[in-house]
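As the next step, I selected for study one protein, both as residues and as discrete backbone shape codes, as given directly below:
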Amino acid sequence: MDARPNSPEARDISYHMHGYTNARKHEEAGPLVIEKGDGIYVEDLAGNRYIEAMAGLWSVAVGFSEKRLVDAAVRQMSKLPYYHDFGSKSHSPLIDLAEKLVQMAPVPMSKAYFTNSGSEANDTAMKMIWYRSNAIGQPARKKIISRNRGYHGVTIAAASLTGLPNNHTSFDLPIANVLHTSTPHHWREALPGESEAEFSSRLADDLEKLILAEGPETIAAFFGEPIMGAGGVIVPPAGYWEKIQAVLSKYDILLVADEVICGFGRTGEMFGSQTFGIRPDIMVLSKQISSSYLPISALLINEKMFEP
């Protein structure tokens, strides 16, 4: 670390509070300051070049400094840098992107709704789900089920959905009406001799027992990543999503596919939902949607959500 009083590293320690960082250790060791990027590479202040194997936070899908995106941003910012969609206002890029996303969806979707991050999109999905429960005369349906080791963001609601203890400890989380069920990690959590199919059946049984214990009339939705990302890149075992969806369908519980990491080609198909045969009522999209060049996320909702 450059220890000079006015170096970028020293100024970072003095003025910037980092996310997911041990603050005390950071004060001692300082940051790695990235100065530029090109394709899969980033370069620090000292000129050291690195392969950015995680694409930032799983998000720079087309690489750094992609000229087509830079040029498109300059054109749009020169023409109309910002506008909103409140009160029936709209603009052409919003309309074009909404149409494109709905048409790309792996299952029939009705509308796209835009927010700024994956966390915010998951928060908004919860709000929409609660609103729908009230609108259809089922105000008791407010509980949301996600999974241990799942990751859905860092805002209050999204961090509650997240099933990682460090996101809850000291923050008084999770909030009320958020429940967690078993992790589909066959290698770590299967019983001796238990096949993937048997393990999936047991996890579906765990989910059904939780629903029955809480009361099916109180459960509104289930949130899940097609492949669990931050929890350990956990690929679901054979039959998992088929059996989970059967339980959700039995009790008329909405399914939210958090495609923030898996979406836009990460699993070989355009969406993780296609790879694993998931038929969500809501899809949450972010990261690759702009290659993280600008903050944007989207919710895709089906007709069941839009016109209950």
Notes: The domain at 89-306 is CATH 3.40.640.10 (Aspartate Aminotransferase; domain 2). The chain has one domain: 89-306. The longest strand covers residues 219-224.
